[in-house]
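Budget justification note: compute hours in this period were largely spent on complex prediction jobs such as the one shown. Inputs:
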Amino acid sequence: MAQHTRKGAQFQAVTANRLADGVVVYLTADNGWSESLQHTEVAEGKEAGEALLARGQQFFEPGNLVLDVYLFEVEKTDNGIRASSVRETIRQAGPTVRRDLGKQAELAGVHE
Amino acid sequence: MYRYDEFDHRLVTERVEQFRGQVARRLSGELSEDEFKPLRLMNGVYLQLHAYMLRIAVPYGTLSSRQLHKLADIARKYDKGYGHFTTRQNLQLNWPALKDIPALLDELASVEMHCIQTSGNCIRNVTSDHYACAASDEVEDPRIISEIIRQWSTFHPEFSFLPRKFKIAVCATKNDRAAIKVHDIGIQILKNAAGEIGYEVWVGGGLGRTPIIGKKIGDFIRREDLLAYLEATLRVYNMQGRRDNAYKARIKILVHEIGTEEMKRLVEEEFAAVKARGALQLPDAEVERIKAYFAAPAFETLPDAMPELDAAIAREPAFADWVRANVTAHRVPGYAIVNVSLKPIGKPPGDATSDQMDAVADIAEKYAFSEIRVAHEQNLCLAHVRKKDLYAVWQALSAADLATANVGLITDQIACPGLDYCNLANARSISVAERISERFADLKLQHEIGRLHINTSGCINACGHHHVGHIGILGVDKKGVEYYQVTIGGAADETAAVGDIVGPAFTEAEIVDAVDTIVKTYLDIRKDGEIFLDTYRRVGVQPFKEKLYAAH
Ligand code: HEM
Ligand code: SF4
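Corresponding output:
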């Protein structure tokens, strides 16, 4: 799979798509999967990132709950956790079009 | 219109049942993703950024009102109330849940539709001219042969695992509205001096990473031989095409590597062998049977002049604008072709809401023999409308926000889903198209600019046909930031050409201004009667380059 994080990234989180409906989810500290980036566990540094990824992978196989599990870079800001790339921001907060619908309407501030 | 026979129907319902079992076994964990992925792709189910995506085939872009109503229902029930019409005349749903897809496919099957062969390395949906049966210089309805090819290629055992996907397009008029020269096989229907119908065969066109214009290998294949010739071409490709590298696996690379003459020779050789076996002769009776499905509707005898229409045009400027851009001459007096723009200013190209699909289906039922076409430019089309009904059609379309008067103009853009939806994307396409559309919203300006196609793709796969846009925009990724590379001078019609890169890529903030600069440069230097492409062909890329990078 394509690389979605960056070598030397300080903060990273783990994301996936939920098997049953494809919805974007984030790995939480209690080994759950949340639809909100704000609930994600943030790993600091390379090793913590790899450990987090390994934990997430369990839910692909054998867990069978999610697929396409991977690490991506995040930033901690005063307004909460943000994804660093445009791609992950779009996954988090929906398309930047049809802003009347879905996540992009609920999380309207993120794309501003 | 063609209706599935029992055989088709049985195949499709069996396939849905099979897939229902596969989805259940995937959800229970019995099937791994590695095992399941090829199975879901065979049924048109992709995984995108936000959700699964389902690609529904619309063979040669023809839909009945009943089918379009069903698509509207499905989008409402299983998705978010809209769908995306693509350059390959298909419909994509952006948000279906995997667990719902078997039920969704059942509903599709109830109107003789499916998602088979919309993915994978097989022969994909055959595309054709959305003006079929309505264009005045048409040699024969291109859907007849498209349907014959569809039947031949559906579940074709030998061609289900080709080196790569395979796309066929058919055109029956001088003006190519099906982009046949950028398809793996393009078929141009011709009539010879003796009045017989035959087929010119172009091979090895394609976009993607390596854009290539197709080469002609067959000058006049006789009707009874067409399937044998196609079979021969596919067989040569299947045997000789590269399987070691996905980027080099399309037939265009084979043709490029061995040369057109050698390709022609190999195909002729195989063709002779297929013919000698005699198995693939197309019997006249079969052609006639299929032809009957595409018989022209019962046109009335009407005068072509329509004083009421002229009066309405004179009276109502908005209607006049719409007629000017969206309505085209029909081969039958008293009728017209109506293009329904899916390019409202500032909105995603090719999207239609469920309510809009229902509206078009109703309008078609009332005024256009219940028939709707999907155009590869991501618009819809009502092929046969009485001129006396144009005003009512316009009013009904207006009520559904479907009367944007911009077909063929600069705001009638092609754009792939891009980074707003697509897992493979480098950059956004739709939002760029939206901003360009806003910049050029002024209709007077659009007419002054004239015919100009802007095509945008979010990555090198070129689903948005950027190489063949008069202006092409390609999204690239530079360290997680969106950039856009611009080409000019591409064309997808009978004068097909791949555009020239103007220079270094622009940022997301710069791209709309860059397009604006190109358009202004053209307006400054064009000669009377030229459209953008003419000016480009006269002056080349240099004047545009100078203006674009002067300030840098
Ligand atoms: C959103 C999910 C999509 C995915 C994952 C996808 C994937 C791809 C890939 C991998 C290629 C390159 C194939 C090659 O060069 O061998 C391609 C080409 C192409 N796709 Fe898509 N595509 C998607 C959506 C679309 C849409 C929405 C359209 C229509 C607007 C489309 C129409 C095409 C066309 C026309 C080409 C280039 C022609 C050619 O095959 O040479 N695709 N696509
Ligand atoms: S061109 Fe690239 S970004 Fe656009 S739909 Fe195709 S694969 Fe996705």
